[in-house]
Design goal:
Layout lengths: L1 H25 L17 H9 L16 E7 L4 E7 L3 H4 L3 E3 L11 E5 L17 E6 L2 E14 L13 E8 L9 E12 L1
Parallel strand pairs: 2-3, 4-7
Antiparallel strand pairs: 1-2, 1-5, 3-4, 5-6, 6-8, 7-8
C-alpha cells in the first residue's frame, strides 16, 4: 500500500512540475526588451499631481467574465510571459496567473491583485528583487510597474488586497516555495505603476 501511494504521489507531483515548467517556458521573453529607463521613476511631484487630476475615461469598456483571458504578465527578470485569467479559482490558476476579481484591473488606479501557484507560473518569483519591472499587457494598453516592496505574510493576511491611493500591482503566491502541501504563508510583491502605453 505504501508503494502504491508513493508511486501515485510521485506521478501527481511530476505532472504538476511538468505542467508548471511548460507554462513558464512557453512564454519566455527577452529581458533586454524591458529596461528601467530614467523617466520611469515615480516622483513625489508626480504622485501629488495624480491626486489633483480628475479621473480620465475608464481604461476598460467592460469588466471581464470569470475565466476570461485578460492579458499577459511579463516578468523581464525571469524572462517570462504568463497569461492572466480573470478569477483565482483552480480553473484559472491551473492555466496561468489569476486576477483577483475583487480588485481593479491592471492599469487602473488602486490595487490590482494577481495570484499564481508557487509550483507553476510563480515558481521563480523569489528571484525578483526591489527595483525590478513587471509589465502587464491588456486590451487597455501596456502597464509597467516597478517593485517597491517584498514581504512574507500569513496566509490569512488580508492587507494584501486592501485599496491603494495610486495604481499598484500586487503579486501573491504560496510560501515557502519548496514546501509540499498546504503553505502557511504568502510571498508578496508590491509594485507601483511607472509607465503606461
Amino acid at each position: 500500500m505504501v508503494i502504491v501511494f508513493g508511486l501515485w504521489f510521485s506521478g501527481t507531483n511530476a505532472y504538476t512540475y511538468l505542467k508548471g515548467y511548460m507554462l513558464f517556458k512557453i512564454g519566455q521573453v527577452n529581458a533586454e526588451d524591458y529596461k528601467v529607463e530614467p523617466d520611469l521613476k515615480a516622483t513625489d511631484e508626480t504622485e501629488q499631481n495624480d491626486e489633483h487630476q480628475e479621473d480620465p475615461d475608464p481604461l476598460y469598456s467592460k469588466r471581464p467574465e470569470k475565466g476570461e483571458n485578460i492579458g499577459e504578465l511579463i516578468i523581464p527578470k525571469l524572462e517570462a510571459k504568463l497569461p492572466i485569467y480573470h478569477g483565482t479559482d483552480e480553473e484559472e490558476l491551473d492555466i496561468g496567473v489569476g486576477h483577483f476579481a475583487g480588485s481593479v484591473l491592471p492599469g487602473e488606479k488602486d490595487n490590482s491583485v494577481l495570484s499564481g501557484h508557487n509550483d507553476t507560473v510563480f515558481r521563480k518569483l523569489g528571484e525578483v528583487e526591489k527595483g525590478d519591472l513587471l509589465v502587464v499587457q491588456t486590451s487597455a494598453g501596456e502597464f509597467t510597474y516597478k517593485v517597491k516592496q517584498i514581504r512574507i505574510v500569513d496566509k490569512d493576511d488580508r492587507t494584501v488586497i486592501v485599496p491603494k491611493p495610486r495604481a499598484t500591482l500586487t503579486l501573491s503566491t504560496c510560501y515557502p516555495f519548496d514546501l509540499i502541501g498546504t503553505s502557511p504563508e504568502r510571498y508578496i510583491l508590491v509594485a507601483d505603476l511607472v509607465s503606461s502605453k
